[in-house]
Amino acid sequence: MEIKINAPITEEQAMTLNAGDIVLLSGEIYTARDAAHKRLVELIEDGKELPIELMDQIIYYVGPTPPKPGQVIGSAGPTTSYRMDSYAPKLLDLGLRGMIGKGARDVNVIQSMIKNKAIYFGAIGGAAALTAKCIKESELIAYEDLGAEAIRKLTVIDMPLVVVIDANGNNLYEIGQKEYLNTLNSK
């Protein structure tokens, strides 16, 4: 069953999602990769204002390609998430409610997700052109000098995602591995 949700999402909404849920996300989300995360954390550490409000927001780890004529955005596939792991807990502590990327997360990120009731969504790697079709608007917000890694606000409609790690720390990668191993052992 697909669950339709609208961004931004609240703590209460995040708590209803479970590892393995298939989600169609609509609404406004932000993009940021490691260079932008580094700058955001430096601002936090210096006690300065951030260029975006993090409370209940979702950040998509993506560095989209330039759009072709008539397109809102170019290919927009997920970036490997571990590159943001050293920065994510500080952003989660400020209310970041969701992250979209691909790959496993560090134990410190997962503990911070549990503490802050946040979700880690997996986007489909290798389907960047298809994902881009779900993006209806793209607005540059900060760090234009970073090019593809600048912070953008995206308006998405029915972006297909999977809840990889839920707000209780249930991890689809671990669940799937255990289920697979159980099927091998039962033969």
Automatic annotation (TrEMBL):
Origin organism is Clostridium paridis
Q: Which SUPFAM superfamilies match?
A: FumA C-terminal domain-like
Q: Which InterPro entries match?
A: Fe-S_hydro-lyase_TtdB-typ_cat, Fe-S_hydroAse_TtdB_cat_sf
Entry protein name = Fe-S-containing hydro-lyase
Q: Any idea where the Fe-S hydro-lyase tartrate dehydratase beta-type catalytic domain is?
A: 2-174
Q: Which domain of life is it from?
A: Bacteria
Q: Name one Pfam family in it.
A: Fumerase_C
| Keyword terms of this UniProt record | Lyase
Q: Which family does it belong to?
A: Belongs to the class-I fumarase family.
Please list the GO terms describing molecular function: hydro-lyase activity
